[in-house]
DNA sequence: GCAGTGACTAGTA
DNA sequence: ATACTAGCCACTG
């Protein structure tokens, strides 16, 4: 088995997997747990490179504003919204998450 | 090995 | 309150 993914990414994915049901986490929180401590960009980059083979609840990952970032495809963004609603996570009018951010 | 890029954050205007 | 700019580190070409 090849590593394929760097340890940094693995930590990021692991941190995301640690997010419980019905909760969400910000890039900064994940970055902190992953050891990047402050570098939320790498978290976003890791998610962009996120292999579909991994069962990562990336939809629970949001930015500091409590919003879903990136994904130029509205369809993809809609999928994330559906997944979050399936997790009892609610959205506000502005499309922001109900700020049920998980505290490590 | 160098340069460019990136799903962010925080600070300033 | 919103909008824009600068900074940080890791991965890819």
List keywords for this structure.
104 residues; two-stranded parallel ribbon; Arc Repressor Mutant, subunit A; DNA-binding; mainly alpha
Textual characterization of the structure:
The chain has 104 residues and is mainly alpha-helical. The chain has a single domain, classed as Winged helix-like DNA-binding domain superfamily/Winged helix DNA-binding domain (Arc Repressor Mutant, subunit A, Orthogonal Bundle). Helices cover 39% and strands 4% of the residues. It has four helices and two strands; from the N terminus they run αβααβα. Helix 1 crosses helix 2. The longest helix has 13 residues. It is globular, with a radius of gyration of 13 Å. It binds a DNA duplex (13 and 13 nucleotides) through helix 2, helix 3 and strand 2.
CATH domain class name: Mainly Alpha
The proportion of residues forming helix, as a percent range, comes to 25-40%
User: For the CA atoms, what is the radius of gyration?
Assistant: 13 Å
Task: Supply the CATH architecture.
Answer: Orthogonal Bundle
Major β-sheet strand ordering: 1-2
> Please, how many domains?
1
**Average pLDDT, all residues:** 86
What is the fold named in CATH at topology level?
A: Arc Repressor Mutant, subunit A
Tell me which oligomeric state these chains represent.
single chain
Biggest β-sheet description: 2 strands, parallel
Reconstruct the topology from this structure.
Blueprint: H1 7-17, E1 25-26, H2 27-34, H3 40-48, E2 61-62, H4 74-86
Parallel strand pairs: 1-2
The chain binds a DNA duplex (13 and 13 nucleotides) through helix 2, helix 3 and strand 2.
């Amino acid at each position: 088995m090849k590593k394929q993914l760097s340890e940094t990414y693995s930590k990021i994915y692991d941190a995301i997997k640690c997010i419980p049901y019905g909760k969400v986490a910000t890039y900064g929180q994940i970055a902190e747990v992953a050891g990047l401590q402050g570098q939320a960009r790498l978290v976003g980059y890791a998610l962009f490179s996120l292999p579909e083979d991994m069962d990562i609840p990336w939809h629970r990952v949001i930015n500091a504003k409590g919003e879903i970032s990136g994904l130029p495809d509205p369809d993809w963004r809609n999928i994330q919204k559906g997944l979050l609603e399936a997790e009892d996570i609610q959205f506000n009018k502005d499309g922001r998450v109900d700020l049920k951010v998980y505290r490590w």
